[in-house]
Amino acid sequence: MAPHLLLVLRILFFLTGVSDTQSVSTVSHVSVKQGGSITIPCLYNQRYRNNVKYWCRGYNWLGCSAVVRADRPKTSGKTSVSDDIKQRVFTVTMTSLSPSDSDYYWCIVERKIKADDGVRLQISVTPGTPELYVDQQQMTGVVGGSVTVLCYYSSQGSSGKWCRMGGSCVAVGHYGAFDGTFVKLVQEQSRTTNSYVLMVTMSGLMMENTGWYTCEKRDLQMPVHITVYQSTTTQSTTANQNNGGTDEMQQEKNQGLERMFFYLLKAGSALLFLLCTFIAVVKFRENRHQDDTKDALTPESCFWRNLPAVCTKYLFPERNNNTLSVQHIMKESLQ
C-alpha cells in the first residue's frame, strides 16, 4: 500500500475510531523493575494468522514508530518479537529495561486494504519495587497436576484477580474454574515487607489450560504463561533435557548391567549344581565299585590276579600299611 494512502487511512481511523480493535488484545499497564525484562503477549483474531505483526512505540498510533516487526529481523536492540500462529498470539520481549523505556506501546497487525488493527498498553519502569510483579512469567505443569503462581503487590488496596487472557477472571475469596480446571486464590501479607502476596493455585490441569493468564491489581496486570505437558514429557530447559537424556541412557545401561548380572548368577548357580551333581555321581560310582570289589575278593582271586595291595586293604585292613605278598595272604586265609 502506498505510504500516503496508508497515512490517509490512519487519519480516518483516528478521527472516526472505526476499527476492529477487539480483534487484538493485550494487557493495559505493566510495572517492571529497572534492569529487568518483560514479555508482552498480543492476542489476535484467527483471520490475522497470516498478517504481519509489529511493535510500535508512542502515545498515538498515528505518530508511533515501529520498533520491531515479525517479517524482518525479529530482534532490534533489546527488543524481540515472535509470532505463534497456532496459538494466535505474538509476543514481544524487552530486556535490560531502563526508566527511559517507560512509555506507551502498541501491538499492531498490519492490514493491506484497511487501516492497521492494534491495541495500546503502558509500560512503567521503576528503580524500586514494581507495584505488581511475579517471580517468573513462564510456568509449567503436567496433566492432572497443579501449578502455583505467586503475584506480589506493593500494597493491599483492592483485591487481586487471576484472569485468562481473552476469558474470565477469578477474584480473591472466590473459587472458579478455567476449562474445567479448579482455581483457588489466597492473599496473604508478607512478614518481612509491607507487601502482599496473591497465591494462585490451578489444580487438575488439562492441555487446554496452556496459554496466557494475568495477575491483576487495579489498573495493573502482569502476564504469565502456563504450559501444560503430558506426564511423560520432560519438563525442563534444554540443558535439563540433555541431562535428562543422559540420565535415561545411564539408567538403561544400569538396568542392562543388572540383567546381565542376574543371568550370570543364574548360569553360575546352574553350573555349580551340575558340578556338584557330577562329583556326587562320580563319588557314588567309586564307592559302589569299591564295595563290589571288596565283595568279589577272595584269597584265590588275590592269588590268581596277583593283587597284594588290594587284597591286604580289603581282607586284612589292620595290615593296610604293610602290603602282604600273595603267598602270605593265601597262607593266612587258609589258617
Judged by helices, strands and strand pairing, the structural class is alpha+beta
The counted number of beta strands is: 20
Low-confidence stretches: 1-21, 233-246
Shape by Cα distribution: elongated
Largest beta-sheet characterization: 5 strands, antiparallel
How would you briefly describe this protein structure?
By secondary structure, the protein is α+β, with helices and mostly antiparallel strands. It contains five helices and 20 strands. It has helices spanning about 5-15, 240-295, 300-305, 310-315, 325-335; strands at about 25, 30-35, 40-45, 55, 65-70, 75, 80-85, 90-95, 105-110, 115-125, 130-135, 140, 145-155, 160-165, 170, 175-180, 180-190, 195-205, 210-215, 220-230.
Describe it for me?
With 335 residues, the protein is α+β, with helices and mostly antiparallel strands. 29% of the residues lie in helices and 35% in strands. It contains 5 helices and 20 strands. It has helices at residues 3-16, 238-296, 299-305, 308-315, 326-334, and strands at residues 24-25, 29-33, 38-44, 53-57, 65-69, 75-76, 79-84, 89-94, 103-109, 117-126, 132-134, 138-142, 146-153, 161-164, 169-171, 175-178, 181-189, 196-203, 211-217, 220-229. The strands form 4 sheets. It has a 5-stranded antiparallel sheet with strand order 1-3-8-7-6, with no helix packed on it. A hairpin with a 2-residue loop joins strand 6 (75-76) and strand 7. Helix 3 (299-305) runs antiparallel to helix 5. It is elongated.
Features:
335 residues, alpha+beta, five-stranded antiparallel β-sheet, five-stranded mixed β-sheet, 35% strand, elongated
